[in-house]
Design a protein that fits this description.
Order of helices and strands of chain A: EHHEEHEEEHEHEHEHEEHEH
CATH superfamily of the largest domain in chain B: Domain of unknown function DUF4159
Number of strands of chain A: 12
Number of strands of chain B: 40
CATH architecture of the largest domain in chain A: 3-Layer(aba) Sandwich
CATH topology of the largest domain in chain A: Rossmann fold
Shape of chain A: elongated
Number of helices of chain A: 9
Shape of chain B: flat
Keywords (chain B): Membrane, Transmembrane, Transmembrane helix
Transmembrane segments (chain B): 6-27, 60-82, 624-646, 653-672
CATH architecture of the largest domain in chain B: 3-Layer(aba) Sandwich
Domain DUF4159 (chain B): 695-912
Strand order of the largest sheet of chain B: 16-15-17-18-25-24-23
Strand order of the largest sheet of chain A: 7-5-8-9-12
Strand content of chain A: 15-25%
Radius of gyration of chain B: 46 Å
Helix content of chain A: 25-40%
Organism (chain B): Lichenifustis flavocetrariae
Oligomer: heterodimer
Protein name (chain B): DUF4159 domain-containing protein
Chain lengths: 313, 932
Amino acid sequence: MATQARLHGTDERVIGANQRHAALDLARRLPALVVSAQHIAASVAHGVHGRRRAGMGESFWQFRPFMAGESAGGIDWRRSARDDRTYVREREWEAVQTIWLWIDRSPSMAYQSNLAPQSKLDRGLVLGLAAADLLVRGGERVGLHGLTRAFATRGIIDRLAEALAVADRVGVAEDLPSSQPLPARSRGVLIGDFLADPQAIAATLKGLASAGAQGQIVLIADPLEETFPFEGHVELRDSDTSARLRLGEASALRTTYLERLAAHRDALRAVARSIGWTVMIHRTDQSAAHALLALASGLAPAMLDGSAFGGRG
Amino acid sequence: MLGLPLAFAVPAVLGALALLPVLYLLLRVTPPRPQSIPFPPLRLILDQRPRQETPSRTPLWLLLLRLAVAAAIILAMAGPIWNPPAALRNGVGPLVILLDDGFAAAPTWARRIAAAGERAAAAERDGRPTAVVPMSEGARAVQPGSASQTIERLRALRPQPFEPDRMQAIPVIEHLLATSPDADLVWIADGLENGHARNFAERLAALTTKHPASVLSSGSTPDALAGSDNRPDALDIRLVRANETGPGSGRLHAFDMKGLAIGDADFAFGTARETHASLNLPVELRNEIARVAIEGEDSAGAVTLLDSRWKRRRVGLVSGTTADVAQPLLSPTFYLAKALAPFADIREIRSGSADPIAALLDEKPSVMMLADLNVGPGIDHDRLASFVEDGGVLVRFAGVRLAGAADDLVPVALRRGGRTFGGALSWDQPKALAAFDAKSPFAGLTPHEEVTVTRQVLAEPDPGLSDKTWAQLTDGTPLVTAEKRGKGLVILFHVTADTTWSNLPLSGLFVAMLRRIVDLSSTTADPKTSRAAGADQNAATLAPTRILDGFGTLGSPPASAKPIAAGVPTPPSLDHPPGFYGPADGLVAVNALNAGDTLTPLDLSGLPLDRQALAASEPIDLRAALVTLALIAFLLDALATLWLSGGLRLRRTAATAAALLIVVGGLSAVPARPARAEDGLNVSKQDMQSALSVRLAYVVSGNASLDNTSHQGLVALSHALADRTSLTPGDPIGVDPARDELAFYPLLYWPILDTAPQPSSAAKARIAAYMKQGGTIVFDTRDALAQRPGGPPTPEGAWLRDLLSGVDVPEIEPLPADHVVTRTFYILAGFVGRYATAQTWIEALPPVSATEANRPARAGDSVSPIVITGNDLAGAWAADAEGQPLFPLVPGGARQRELALRGGVNLVMYTLTGNYKADQVHVHDLLERLAR
């Protein structure tokens, strides 16, 4: 049979060492990620790391010649005394960004077809945790929306995974995050399949962004969901509800389905655009590293030209 | 049906096959349950009614499978039978079944009875009376009766263990045909000519010109055993068969009297009608054999019974003369051995034994033959007397010693001296043998006229002399006398066993007489049957004891079995069926087939008889097969349905495992030939390689750097050997004496590490065995710098002492300057390594003899098993891959390193070549001698 798919059981959904190792493995393939923020200067929380550019901070960055019109208070007299010119001591720009992560862990995520190497949930967790590790290495603080505060610890993957596991033990995850607004000037990263009703999604997203937070949506889809390759006599089951649809000739419905799917995604994109968020679609048969790179470039567009990240030492 | 041998018990059921098209239509519109697939984005299209709903159909192959199941069940219900029983020819008269019931019919007896029963049942359906005439009871008149009586009688019939004469049934048949001329005759023949089958068939054809009689015969005839011969080396069984074709091979089993299997032998006819099989067993076991049967051949012909006539007896031969093996014709035992060899096992004490009689009696012979030996009072006499009392046969031959001093182990009192005929001082002519008396065991033998006696010992004319005489000369003087003592016999030949007194030992009569005597040795136990006791054997009859039935099973004798006359060969018949006759300790076997008998196939060519094959194969009820087939197809259908509805997908591994299990189960059901080629070859790869090439070896100490040094040192030495000598050693190897087999290594280098644990006692035993078996161990204490003359032993030295305390080490001495090990390849003064100061110890040589005093090299008888040095040889040899030395030397210098390598070369050469270099110093002398 060409198409085979299954929903992972609850025991398979438990977040364990596999995802942590995979996430760590994935994160280590990319350099540390530093979020580019438009409103960094006004950020309240100061980070411990410099931004490799002159700005507000405590660490020495560089001396530069004094330019006319500058405040004389910036002149470093000790340096200037060495020769005839006057120098200004510049300090490194030190700031930190907070990223709020949300990973969909609803039953529909625990879905894997024979076309994909892992389930959507696994891929989402790996992607999310790897991004978290990457960000923390870049000096940012990462938290789980609605679950934890933002951390900047080295063992961020373990912290987040534990928090997720505890939350999953307590109850079944919803397929959308709570619409509690994200703090202003923080970033949101939502990872999920976003198969819910477009109105519900729109309400949630608007709620999240109501304080002005920017964000990115990673829509994870199984190739089976993208292509609808069924033929002949098939019975389709919903994953979250008990709905069933028996099709005499499934291939007849393919066009309709693809249209509906495109419309759904267009609605999602429209909502995101209205609040200034971006949407990224990732198929589980593609490489996770690819998705992570895309996510990273979305978070730090400058990273692609190489100036915004790199080894510190 | 349709030319096939197929019939249906209930053909009406086949009408149900017409329903199959209906079933086809029904099945076609009820497809299997669809595949159920989880699909999270279902809510996007949940509101959709399918626009196009093509009616799904059952796949064609599934449809066909299901139809096949239905068809198979319908066919099974119709009761199909393969090879249905043949119908009977129409007729009105009685049906007379002539049944061959000889042993040849036994293997196919059930089929024969079934075929007869079928015909009887068919005759009953037609309301015809039936009768059965078994050939063995052919002379008994029969009256046609109802089929149930006939079938009952058929069931009671058993094959007879012999081939009955069919001609005796002819009068009965004639009588039957006279009373009811329209009778149908069916002869179920066993396919053998034996028992006048051709004559019978001709007569039958002549009698039944109106209704040709039917002849049912099976193509195959059984194999049979005809005669056996207990030869010196094996029991030889003769096998015969009637046809040249057929499988013609099989296996014989031999059983003892209690029915326990003793041995077996294979036979193969090839294309012949006669073959032989031999049972190669020790004579004691062969003598136990009472019955030999062909495996899987249930017939009396496939069984041969062996009585005491087939037993080989052990005969002990003792001669009083000093046997001169260079002149065997002068030895009496030579003639006896030649005469006895065909039928007895001869035990002879050649020479060197202090007490040959006792030695022979220990071997428990049946017959003792003393050739011209005087048995004086003593332990030998007593043992011989008790031997005779216990049933042994003592045969004595006269001679000058016996004539001089007769003892009491003779049957008759003897006159001193004896007499000579035809000598220079005698008028008498050499005397010939008289005819044997009927009471004598030799009765029936023909005394040859050529047999003459020139000298004999004479018996005192006692009253009972004539009773004791078994053979006499023409003048009435006894030649062979015998007396029964206890359970045994004492027999005296009044002549020698060699040709000095008569030419009897040269004649065939001698062999025959000895054979009869040896045959007696088993029957002496029972006075009633003992011919020596003078009983009137002609009147003696032997009652049947255990009788073979037609299937070749021994059982109690039937009422019809009558006793046989003793001593007369009895052909098997209804009165004397094959089996054992006589008392338990003197059984006489009567066999269905004897040596010389053959089996001849029945020839019916040219006779107006209706020939039919005895049902070639039995009717096979196909119901079970069809139902099984339907069940299997049904299971397949269930699996396919499961698969189609997606139930099997995620359990593919389980399904694969199940399929594998089925395949494996099927394979294991097939009796696979066990592959045991590798059995017993428990040789490691390392041992295999070591055995294939000469390798130097070192003992692994457990210290990595030391082991490395040893290895590199031996590698360097191996290279030096390959460069300089004709020896190309394999790669050196580290061994553990406790674990590895040491036998492959001529030389074992053992660097001592005082911190290593002492080997276990088992390992020490292996080390000792290695040294005993010719291995050489070079112990290197590597402590030359620490040694102090007269001081306490170094730790390594103490360790070595501890080790060798548990090993049997020969006496050792400091290496003498002229020891051969210093001459084997290079001429050396000693063995140096990294150090040059330590003494080398080696097995002490024997003291110098005067003749060897000026030789350049000395050697013991073997290679020294032990060499002890303290100079760290491997350290000096060791070099890296480029050949650069690894360790500095003390005192140092290239010369010392070269000398160390030369020492190693010498050591290896010494272990490989031994002391030949010491012998080579003689080459000069030898060449001089050759030139002289």
